[in-house]
Amino acid sequence: MKVLVTGATGFLGTHLVRKLKELEWDVYISNTKHASLNRIENLWCYNDIKFDYIFHLAAVTKAGDYCLKNPATQWLENQIINTNILRYWQGWQPQAKIICMGTSCSYTPGIHMKEENYLLGEPEESLYTYAMTKRMVLNGLTAIEKQHNLKWLYFIPSTLYGPDFELDDNHFIFDFIRNCYKAKYENEKFVVWGDGEQKRELIYIDDAIDAMINLLEYENEIFNLGTGEDFTINTFAKIVSKCYNYDESLIEHDLDKYIGVKEKKIDTKKVLNHLKDSEDFIKTDLTNGIQRCVDYYIEAVKK
C-alpha cells in the first residue's frame, strides 16, 4: 500500500506513520517542511506516485484558549490547507481513498453526539471557527463524491492521548502531567482550570489508530472514535496525581480560567457495529494509559 500522511509529524501523525510502517506500507509525508499544504504545487513532488490512501491529519490549532484568541488565523490557514489537499486528491490522486479527521468540537453543545447530528446547530462559540473549518472538510468530501464519485472516510475522535507527545502540548491531560510533575519535583502548584466538574472523554492513541485501519474497507462514512465514557476533569487530575504519588488534596482550582463546554461524550454505537472485533476496540485502560504518559514524560524530562 502507498499512503500519503499530512500532518505527519504531529501527535497523531507520528503514531500513525509508525503503525503504517510496521504494516510495511510505503509511507510518504507532508508537513510544514516537506510538501507543505500551504501551496498545492508543493504536493506535485508526489505526482508520479499513485496513492492508495491519503490520511489528512494536518490542522492549525492548539488546545486551551487558542481557538478563542486566534479565529482569523484558524479560518484562513485551515481553509487553505484543507482546500489544497482536497484539490490535490480530486485532481491528481482520484484513485486514492482520502481519510480526514474531524473534531468533537464541531458538535453543538448539549446535542446527542452521534454522527448524523454532526452538522446540526451551532458549535461552542469559543471553538466556532475551528469547528466550522472541520465541518467544511466534510462538506468538501461529500461535494467531491457527488460530482466525481471519489471515496472517503471521516473520523471524529474524542481527545487523543498517549506517550510521545510534545512536552509543551497543552491539551488538558498533557498539561496535568506536566503540571503535576512540577508540583511533585519543583515545588510548584498543580492548578485545575475552573471547578473541575466539566467532563471530558479520552481515547488512547493506539486504540484510535487500530480502529481507523480496521475501518478502511468502508466508503463515504463518518465514524465517531471514542470510549463512550467521560469523566470529570477532577477525576483526571486525581488519576495523574496517583501516577506520581502526589497528594491530591494539594490540587488547587482557578475559577477565573477558561473551561470550554461543560461536557463532551461521543456516541460510539456506529463504530462498535462496524468493527469486526468490537469487544476489543478499547484495549487500553484509562489509568494504565495515563501511567504510560507519565512514565514517558518523566523519561523525556530526564533526557
Query: How many beta-strand segments?
Result: 12
Rounded to the nearest angstrom, the radius of gyration is 19 Å
CATH superfamily of the largest domain: NAD(P)-binding Rossmann-like Domain
The major β-sheet equals: 6 strands, parallel
Might you state the CATH topology name of the largest domain? Answer: Rossmann fold
Tally the helices: what do you get?
A: 9
Main CATH class of the largest domain: Alpha Beta
- Percent in helix: 25-40%
- Overall pLDDT level: 93
Global geometry: globular
Poorly predicted regions? none
Helix and strand element order: EHEEHHEHEEHEEEHEEHEHH
What portion of the residues fall into strands of 2 or more residues?
Answer: 15-25%
In the sheet with the most strands, the strands line up as 2-1-3-4-5-10
Assigned CATH architecture of the largest domain: 3-Layer(aba) Sandwich
Derived structural class: alpha/beta
How far from one another are the termini?
36 Å
Domains, number: 2
Structural summary, described in words:
- Helix content is 39%, strand content 15%.
- By secondary structure, it is an alpha/beta fold.
- It folds into two domains: 2-157, Rossmann fold (3-Layer(aba) Sandwich); 165-200 and 229-264 and 285-302, UDP-galactose 4-epimerase, domain 1, CATH 3.90.25.10.
- Helix 4 links the parallel strand 4 (97-101) and strand 5 (152-157).
- The longest helix is centred in the first third of the chain and has 22 residues, at 71-92.
- The radius of gyration is 19 Å and the shape is globular.
- The two termini are 36 Å apart.
